[in-house]
Amino acid sequence: MHLLFAFFGFILLAVSSANPIPADDEDAHLTVPELIAKYGYPVEEHHVTTEDGYILTLHRIPHGKNSNKSLGKIAYLQHGVLSSSADWIITGTTHGLGYILADEGYDVWMGNARGNKLSRNHTSLNPDTDSEFWKFSWHQIGTIDMPTMIDYILEVTNHTNLYHIGHSQGTTTFYVMTSMRPEYNDKIKAHFSLAPIGYMNHMTSPLMHIMAFWSGPLDLLFKLIGVNEFLPSNEFMALVGDVLCGDDDITQILCTNALFAICGFSASEMNATILPVLTGHTPAGSSVMQLMHYAQEINSGGFRQYDFGLDNWSHYHSLTPPPYDLAKITAPIYLFYSHNDWLSAEQDVIRLCKGLGSACAGKFLVSDNGFNHLDYLYGIHAPEYVYDRVISLMARH
User: Fold this and answer.
1) How many Å separate Cα 253 from the centre of its chain?
2) What residue spans of the chain are helical by DSSP H?
């Protein structure tokens, strides 16, 4: 509890509504395709089935609002944990990276990983009744889901490669894919990591610390966070919402939302007018194993596969999980990080860059010291702090 107070002490600051991003409460109830169409952009919805039966949803903005075609360059966007393709468009046409890239002439594809509410489907398993559905972490998303979606995109567009942009877990799964299935490096023109997560030694999220260093009975932990799907109980969320947040409506909304409870938020970057839309689309769902895999990374200090404990031998023929071999990654990678990030700490990003060797083409520290893990998506200044540089770098490849 002392750790919670230490890290949430500043969270009671008022949330700024300066430079508001226009938002419409109706948007909270619209689907991603409905949202995109509402604002005048072309949109397509695609479905692809993985080798192990998960049915994934892809959303596409084939070109900008004022153009009939793209420049023939594909931008693939992959969301983070507890999130979905909605991340890239819910902040509106001037701030959503999906819209911005489409208006820059890119053919934009936005993936949805297994288990989120837009890819909560399977050829034979029912997510509501079959626990087998939820037996995956971000390892399976990286080794199966992302390659499946990328191959589908390249086949539909008749291209051989694309740009890949990931946020948070969307960066982790990229490193997993390109290390475990190195042939996919040739299919990537360049990758852009927004809030990169590989190593997590210096991660400061209080709720992730609770999961990582839990010393009580596991059945009690699962009662608090969910057994299969990550569904935090009211008691778990009360650690943040009821105890540490003030009575202000804005801080209550943020502190009782599982995504913000894990990642935090920046008072200066969070625009209150988008909150109804944002909370209508997030959290989008994840498996408990995804969060537990990250908790294991905090404990181990490494970047390695899921730890099955006594069952490691049957999975790996080893007592410990094998590390991901970053040396096998050859696609150019650009890392964007910030000082106020509870999950992607500067020291861990620097270590990741060193591990990537020549594949680490550049790392960029956001100039605003208050910039947070979720500001790469929802921050008022995300376009000028991050997106402009990403687009400039894309033009080099």
Assistant:
1) 20
2) 2-8, 32-38, 97-103, 138-140, 146-157, 169-180, 206-212, 218-225, 234-238, 241-244, 249-255, 258-263, 275-281, 288-300, 312-316, 346-356, 375-378, 382, 388-394
Is 358 marked active-site? no
> Of the residues 79, 164, 191, 373, which is catalytic?
373
Instruction: Spot the catalytic one: 84, 137, 168, 338.
Output: 168
Active site residue 139: no
- Each of the 397 residues of the chain gets a pLDDT tens digit; together they read 434 333 333 333 333 334 444 455 789 999 999 999 999 999 999 999 999 999 999 999 999 998 877 788 999 999 999 999 999 999 999 999 999 999 999 999 999 999 999 999 999 999 999 999 999 999 999 999 999 999 999 999 999 999 999 999 999 999 999 999 999 999 999 999 999 999 999 998 888 888 899 888 888 899 889 999 998 887 777 665 554 455 555 555 656 677 877 887 777 888 778 888 888 898 999 999 999 999 999 999 999 999 999 999 999 999 999 999 999 999 999 999 999 999 999 999 999 999 999 999 999 999 999 999 999 999 999 999 999 999 999 999 9
3-class DSSP state of 391: helix
DSSP annotation of 72: S
